[in-house]
Structure prediction request, 785 residues.
Amino acid sequence: MIEATSTKLEPWQFLFRAAAFSGLFAVVYPLLVVAWALVVPSRVYSNIHIASAARGYSAARLAEAEEMGPVDVLILGSSHAYRGADPRVLAKAEGKDSLRVFNLGTSNQTHLQTAYLLDRFLKKLQPKAVLYEVSPDVATGRGAGAALDLALSDSLSANLFWYTLRARDLKAIHVVLFRAVAEPFGLWALADLEATGVDETYLPGGYARYDGKRVYRHGSETFEALAPTASQLGWLQKNVDRLLGAGARVYLYRAPVVKEVHAFEVDAEEYSQRMQAIAPYMDFNGRIELIDTVDFYDARHMRPPAVTKFSEALRRHYLE
Amino acid sequence: MSFTSLAFAALLLVTYVVYWAAGADRRRLQNGILLLASTVFYGWWDWRFLALIALSILIDYTVGRALGAATGLRRRKVLLGVSLAVNLGLLGFFKYAGFFVESFRAAFSLGISSGFDMLDIVLPVGISFYTFQTLSYTIDVYRRKLTPSNSLLDFATFVSFFPQLVAGPIERATRLLPQFQAMREFHSGEAADGLRQMLWGFFKKLVVANNCALLADQAFAAPESFSAPTLLVGLLAFTFQIYADFSGYSDIAIGTARLFGVSLSQNFANPYFARTIPDFWRRWHISLSTWFRDYVYIPLGGSRRGRRRTLINIAIVFVVSGLWHGAAWTFVAWGALHALYMVLWIRLVPEGFASRGLTFLLVMLAWVLFRSPDIATAGQYVSHLVNPGAWSARYQFGLSVTAIVMASTTIVGVAEFVLRNKRHGLAIAGLAWSRPQRWLSYALIIAFTLILGRISDQPFIYFQF
Prediction:
């Protein structure tokens, strides 16, 4: 592909020339990505899409975590965590002074992205206890959506690029490449990200509260059976080991979802056994009284009164 | 292991380095390296599949040796029968057992369980391809067109050669086996054009085929919910998807083989520019069409036994070819429809008549049967497509993806037509471009593939066959 037909090369010379082309391409390609992102309208389908807003307030949450300092309780997980566990409620543990609680949940956060966030914040936050949301839906795949979210929302670093590569999502890789070129030249800044959400409010401490009026309707969503991957379960085990090694108590939990999801996604009994083999685990589905069409606004997320009810149950079970 | 995976890139790089480091004069060592790479490549899907291909290799190697030593016709026929029975038996069991039992039950309305539901037979990837390849060896040895291999290593390398193992081109033993029995030299021009061909194949697969799939999958999933213009675009999308997917795979396979100094057969020759239906079949999946010609059509009598028998032979070949593609009535119907096209074309169309438009239209219509999950859906698709009322409804696919599909398909069509005498659509070395021009063109193709391609786990269509 690389050389002129008139030149006869040895196999290794040919390989070096191909490597030279690859090196040159690696330098030029990020420039093309920036040019595309700036020139081509975002409505044109492509693998380059630099969103104007991070989903689930990740940028605001990560910026707050940066300033937070040591906490008593750290919450980890996906939107089940940041939309489902209210730090203000968890802070009021009976018989204890007000706890410092921070919710570090991010959109679609799989255990691979949790590992990245522990790299970033474990030393800063030094949690005494960790409530780690482990829904089966975040133990599948490589967390492409979460990688994209973090690539857009966190400050740029070699570690962010490394974890983005591990998620093997081209859109997320493009975001990091874009930022690597655009930020030094002032073409884009993290501060440009809008902190907006539909019918949602970000509250200090990491919780995103739903303010809308929607309620879940049966049959409005489709579900599929999930198969947690060995790779993701491996990352979960590593994360738990690391937290224990840092002196934190670790509690795994599964947040409430509507009954259809709970019944369909995985065999709850088998999944419980797998989780309990890793750390203390509690599936809160069925443990607190919730009505699907009243307490949920979609199949996986609770309305604020239910969040309060669940956060109280979580607090009673693990923190009191 | 898919060509579009990082694992394949790593395997290819390591194999290339070790293969050429071994030295072109150490042919057997190079074959051993290729065999090891092929084992890793195939076992990546499921290591149990290795047992099946190993069985095919051992049986056909042994049969080949015995055929070489046997002189009596009766003994030779028995030996050929053993090879046919084992190979077609394995193919029949893994690919067709469930289909035939279910069809039998449905036809006679038997309320009993076949037991095949519970067996849940897994179709070993590529079994249709390597079975036909290894059969060509025993049949050619039987016909004394080929001297049997006296090296199990050479033979195993021939059957399992990883670039073309799972989706062809289906190589003849007379063409490929001698290449593993001789020294291979590195030609940088060949390797360079091999890489270009691979790049072109990736572009076709990731940009054209995978984006077309986005439209075609929706259209065929629920044709009743789309307008006729949308269905027409869905059908066009599948027409280009299957070409870009399969010919893209072939380009990657041929290009990969060229990196190792091995030449594979051309599998496509601008089939959608064919002027007649017979011409289409000389250009589409050439390695399979010629296989059926040489090992089914001609042994049936070919065109030597009168016009009526010729037409019957053609019909048999096309129905069997349809069934080769998959164990479903839709594939049988697709083969039968092409048989009808061929028969009608030969009988009714005046000699010398040629029409690219008509040929393309007929081929495209037949793809409805090929792509639909069942005959009923195919009927629904066509009836909705020809319903005048359905043409007044608006177009329902996203304009952005439609534009990408149209633009990329046009690029591929124009490039392959302009360079139709070359081996592939990126054969620009012959255009005497300077190195900066060539490198810029490669960079642009790679960039567009990364930016516009759907780099997902969408498998190649022909893997299922």
